[in-house]
Amino acid sequence: MPPPPLQPVESLGPGAPPAPSRSRPPAKEAQKPDPKPEDPKPEPAAPPAQPPPVLRMPETVNTAQLTTQIQEAIARSKAILAKVDYRRLSPVAVKAYKESQMFAQQAEDALKANNLPFAKELADKAERLAKELQGR
Fold first, then answer.
1. Is 103 helix (H, G, I), strand (E, B) or coil?
2. Tens-place pLDDT, residues 61-87
3. What is the C-alpha radius of gyration for the chain, rounded to an integer number of angstroms?
4. Measured between alpha carbons, how far is 69 from 111 in angstroms, rounded to an integer?
């Protein structure tokens, strides 16, 4: 006598290999209408400009003395730039001249905002650039 036909088993219990899944397309996909063309997305806006970081000086630094040093560095850079003949500068030197002016202005702004470390860094940059142009 032949054995009875086998019936599919859904779960064989713990530790048994999973039953093979049947591959049928999901019903939702068959009901979807044709996809609409996407509207062009606008370009993301540039991130907002962030203010310069506020750096902190060690407590041992005399703020009045540091403020004076910054003001003197700004004044020296402006005095040097005043003696430079701007008309005779090369394009690279003109760029350095303008950057020195910009750093001096930013140093003054940082000084007003009481951001002394940032003001000191900017004033030093302005002075270095101005000294490079000295004698031109």
1. helix
2. 688 999 999 999 999 999 999 999 989
3. 36
4. 11
